[in-house]
Amino acid sequence: MKTYNNPAKNTWAAITQRPAKEANTLGATVKAVFEDIKENGDQALKNYTEKFDGVILSDLKVSQQEIDNAIPLVSQELKDAIVLAKNNVEKFHAFQKIEKKVISTVNGVDCWQEMKPIEKVGLYIPGGSAPLFSTILMLGVPAKIAGATKIVLCTPPSKDGTINPAILFAAQLVGVTEIYKLGGIQAIAAMTYGTESVPSVYKIFGPGNQFVTAAKQYALTQGLAIDMPAGPSEVMVVADKDADASFVVADLLSQAEHGADSQVILVTESQKLIDEVQIELEKQLAELPRQEVARLAIENSSAILIDSIDAQNELINEYAPEHLILNVLNEDVYLDKIVNAGSVFIGPLTPESAGDYASGTNHTLPTNGYARMYSGVNLDAFTKKITYQKITAEGIQNIGPAIELMAAAEGLDAHKNAVTLRLNSLKK
Amino acid sequence: MKTYNNPAKNTWAAITQRPAKEANTLGATVKAVFEDIKENGDQALKNYTEKFDGVILSDLKVSQQEIDNAIPLVSQELKDAIVLAKNNVEKFHAFQKIEKKVISTVNGVDCWQEMKPIEKVGLYIPGGSAPLFSTILMLGVPAKIAGATKIVLCTPPSKDGTINPAILFAAQLVGVTEIYKLGGIQAIAAMTYGTESVPSVYKIFGPGNQFVTAAKQYALTQGLAIDMPAGPSEVMVVADKDADASFVVADLLSQAEHGADSQVILVTESQKLIDEVQIELEKQLAELPRQEVARLAIENSSAILIDSIDAQNELINEYAPEHLILNVLNEDVYLDKIVNAGSVFIGPLTPESAGDYASGTNHTLPTNGYARMYSGVNLDAFTKKITYQKITAEGIQNIGPAIELMAAAEGLDAHKNAVTLRLNSLKK
C-alpha cells in the first residue's frame, strides 16, 4: 500500500487514479450474438449455452420442481440469515415509497407526481465459484415493492445444468417470477428481445464480467434501460486516531478481495494508524483465502495522511467513493460536507459488509466516480415518476395569458391556440 | 389522419408505430470533433463555431455587459410571463425535495437516504428560429433548487454573434452561472472535457438535433451522465363524447407543429368526435403558421375508436405516451390504471401547453416509449441519493451473525472477518 503525507491537492487525482479500464473492444462480438438471438431465439440461446457453459439444456427455464428440490439443500441457518437480510432490505426500500402530494402552484392549477413500477425488469446474477444470492435480495426486493409484474432472473448454469440452491432459495423468497439458465451476452440479449421462452424486459440490472457489461451497454442502444455504468468496486476508509487498525484493515480487505482491479484508500490524520495498518495488513492478508487477488488490489491502493478535516472532505468529494466508511468518533464534521458518495458507513461498528448483506441498504452502488451523478440502486431505480396536472377555469385564467405570450414568443402558435380556445370558451 | 374502428389488439403496435428513427451514422464525425476539442480546446471551439455558425468569436463566454444590454430588449409583458412560469416551476420542483427520514431496520441499525446535488450540470439550448427560453426554466430551476454550484448553459450564437435576449433574460433569472456561445457537437464536447474557457460538467441536459443527440450519446461513453434518450415529441389525447373537438384538435396540433416526425394519436369512444375532429383539423391547420410541418406529422398519426375504457387503458400503457391528455369528465376510470406515461393532463381545461410553459410541471419528458422506464426531468434528475447507515453494538450483534453466514456462503472471507472482529471486540 503506497503512503502519502499531506499530498498537494493537485496530486490527488493522480494518487487516487482508478485502475485503467480497458477499452471495450467487444462491440462486434456482442452485436453478432444479439442479432443471432434476435433472429433464432431459443435455439441460438441453447447453442451459446452449450458453447460457453458446456451444458446442453432441453429447457432454459428453471422448473418449479427444480426449485422445490433445491430448497431443502440450503441449510436452515443460511435460510434464516437470508430471511433476516431480506426483511431489512424490504423495510428500507419500502420506506422509500413516496405518497401522492398535490401542490396548487397557483389557484386552480394542481400538480403532483406518482411513483409507478417499471413493469418488466430483468436481473442478471453471475455464475462462477460463489453464488451471489445477496444480489438477488438487493434487486428482487425493490422490484417487488415497486410493483413489477415480471421479474426475470438469468444466471448461468453449472456444468451439470443446475443452479446453486441458495440462488433458487433467494429468488423464490423475493418473488422472482421466472428464472432462466442463461449467462453472459446471451442472457442480456434474451431479455432485450425476448425469445420463445424468455420474455423481454424494460430494464436490466445486475453485475457481470466484461461481456455482460458490454452486452448491457448494447441493450441500451436497443431501447432498454440499465441500472448504471459498471466499474470495479472501491472503498474509501476515513479513520481517526482512535480507530482500531484491525477494523480498518478488515474493511479495506473486504473490498480488495473482490478483484485485482478493486481500489481501497485509507485517509487519516494519524501516522500511527497508518503504521499499524501496514503491519495488520500483512497479518490479515496471510490468513485470507483470496489473498492473491487482495494483494494485487492493495498494490494499487493508498494510505493518505491528511491533517485537515476540511481537506479530507475535499478529497472525499473529489474521489466520490462508491463506499465511504467513516470510522471516526465524531462524524458530524464530515456528514454535512459530503456531496459525492454512494453509501456511507458511520462509526467504528459499521463495516461495509453490513450494507453488502443485511442492514437493509442496497449494495448496488455507483463506482468509478459515478457517485457524482448517480444514486445507488434504490426504489427509484425500479420506478418512474409520472407527473399529473389538473386545471380549473380559474387556473387556466390565472396562467393562460402567460402561456399565450410565451408560446407566441417561441413561435409555437398551436400551443398558444390551445389556451386561447379555452380562455374564449370561458368568456361565453 | 388515419382512423381505426376498435382495431384488434394485435394490430395496436403497428397502428401506433412511431416514425422510424434513422440509425445514428454520425459516430465518426462526433468522435473526431470530440477528440479535436479535447486536444485543442478553445481554438477548436472557435474554428467549429466559425465553420458551422458562421461567426468569428473572440470570446466564447457571454459577458455580464451583454446580458445587461439584452435584458431591456425583452418586453415587460414577456418578462412577467416568464417570471410567473418560473415561480410555478420553482414551487413544483421545490416540493419534490425529500426530508431525511431515518429507519431502524432492526434495533441499533439506522439507515437513511439524503438527496444531494449533482454539483456541475450543463444545459444545452438549441438555436434556430425560435428562442427556447422555456427550456431554460425547466432545466435551470431544478438545477438551482438541487443546489448545483455550476450551471453551464451552451446555446449557438446568431450570425451576428449575439444570443437572443429572452434566452439571456431567462438564464440570469434562474441563476445559470455561465453562458457560452456554442452549439452542436462542439458545445457538448466542451462541457464533456472542459477547455480553457468552458468548464466540464457531470451531467448534460437539453434537447437538440441529431448532431446534439449523437454528441450526448458519445458524452455518455466518456463518463458523463445525460438526462435521457432523445426522440421526437408525441401526444396521446383520450377524449370522451363530450369533448370539444376544437380543444382536441388544438392539442393535437400543439404536438404536430413541433416537427414532421412528431406523432399525435386520438383515442375515443365517440365516432361523432372523430368526425368533428377531422373537419376541425382542416380549419385549424389552414390558419397555422407551421402548417406544413404539422400536416406531415398528422399524416403519420391516427384517430382510434375504442369502445371499452379497459381497452383504452391497455392501449395507453402499451403506447406509453410522452404526453397524455385525458380530455374527459370522469378521469377516475383512467388514473388508477395508467402505469406508463410521461406527464398526464387531466380534464377539458388542461392543455399540454400548460405543462410546456407555466403550470409548474416539467416539459422535458420521455419520448419513444421510454415512459415505460424513465421519469421526465424532475428534481431527482439534478440530484442523487446517498445512503447512510450507523450501527451500534446492539445493531451489529443483531445482524452480525447473519452477515457472517452469508459472506462465508458467498466465499468472501474478508467481508465475514470485518464483522467477526467487531463482534469479538464486544465480547471482551
Automatic annotation (TrEMBL), chains A, B:
Enzyme Commission no: 1.1.1.23
Q: Has UniProt tagged this entry with the keyword Metal-binding?
A: yes
**Xref: CDD domains:** Histidinol_dh
Report the cofactor remark: Binds 1 zinc ion per subunit.
What enzyme class is recorded for this protein? oxidoreductase
Name the positions where NAD(+) binds.
Answer: 124, 186, 209
Q: Which cofactor does it need?
A: Zn(2+)
Pfam (any one) = Histidinol_dh
Quote the catalytic activity from the record: L-histidinol + 2 NAD(+) + H2O = L-histidine + 2 NADH + 3 H(+)
Question: Per UniProt, which keywords does this protein have?
Answer: Amino-acid biosynthesis, Histidine biosynthesis, Metal-binding, NAD, Oxidoreductase, Zinc
Protein's UniProt keywords contain Amino-acid biosynthesis: yes
* Residues that bind Zn(2+): 255, 258, 356, 415
Query: Can you supply one Gene Ontology CC term for this chain's record?
Result: cytosol
InterPro entries registered for this protein in UniProt = Ald_DH/histidinol_DH (IPR016161), Histidinol_DH_CS (IPR001692), Histidinol_DH_monofunct (IPR022695), Hstdl_DH (IPR012131)
Pathway assignment: Amino-acid biosynthesis; L-histidine biosynthesis; L-histidine from 5-phospho-alpha-D-ribose 1-diphosphate: step 9/9
Q: Which purpose does this protein serve, as stated in its record?
A: Catalyzes the sequential NAD-dependent oxidations of L-histidinol to L-histidinaldehyde and then to L-histidine.
Record's family?
Belongs to the histidinol dehydrogenase family.
Matching NCBIfam families: hisD
Q: What is this protein called?
A: Histidinol dehydrogenase
